[in-house]
Amino acid sequence: MKKKVERIAGKFAEIISGWNNVEAIILGEAAEIETIDPYFNINLDIYYLGNLLPRNDRKEKLKLGIMLETSLIFPEDKFLVEDLPVRVRYKETARFGLILKRIEDRLWVFRESGTNMFYRLTRGQVLFSKNDWLKTIQKRLEKPPEDFWEIIMDSTRFSIEFYLNDLDAAVYRNDRLFYLHSAASFIKSMCSFLFAYNKQFEPSSRMLYERVKALPRLPDEFIGRFESFLRHDMELPPKRKREIARLMAKSILSLQYRF
Known about the structure:
The protein is of the alpha+beta class. It has helices at residues 3-16, 55-61, 93-104, 116-123, 133-142, 146-173, 176-197, 208-213, 222-230, 238-253; strands spanning 22-27, 42-48, 66-70, 76-81, 84-92, 125-129. The protein has two domains: 3-142, Beta Polymerase, domain 2 (2-Layer Sandwich), CATH 3.30.460; 146-253, Four Helix Bundle (Hemerythrin (Met), subunit A) (Up-down Bundle). The protein contains ten helices and six strands. A six-stranded mixed beta sheet has the order 3-4-5-2-1-6, with helices on both faces.
């Protein structure tokens, strides 16, 4: 990681860690890539307990660069600091405790947002940690119940079949917009299944392409079919890609995964 990135992230962490209710600050892996890469971002996750500092107060305290925007819906602030993008997202700790309890009580329901929230907690660079909240959460995430992964795979199996049917319908109707929507949802469901099959949390969507290909356990011929499905090629029209999607779905749905 470049010194400039470390310095900017460190400045934000130094200020925000002084707020009374902040439990932990984690720097996301998007800060590790080259700054000229469009996927680069100094992405800071702030885990807080109780009430978050109001938007105007945050703006007053974080005078480190140009504040581009602050979300009125999600607790998030965006900045431009020394020509580098900074994204600060605030996450309430109580939510994670509730989710983990539901997982441990076998009451958790998998959502299409996936498991990236857990990935960010376990894979980022810890810039600040107060008390034992972060260590405790990370310890609980090291070995979730075995049926945690099975719940995800059961849910995504259904989604794979559902979106494959949508893909068939879109090709039949020559509906280009619905085809793109169905194809994207099909790929997302398939990747979620494969990460769960490998007992791994999902990275961000921007990292998905490279990370899914690097998974240790994949169906035979998956990568070649995956690349063909994603490739823009006149020799691979939607009808042909539909056949590729069927082959990928068949190979995934035939996997045995009861642990």
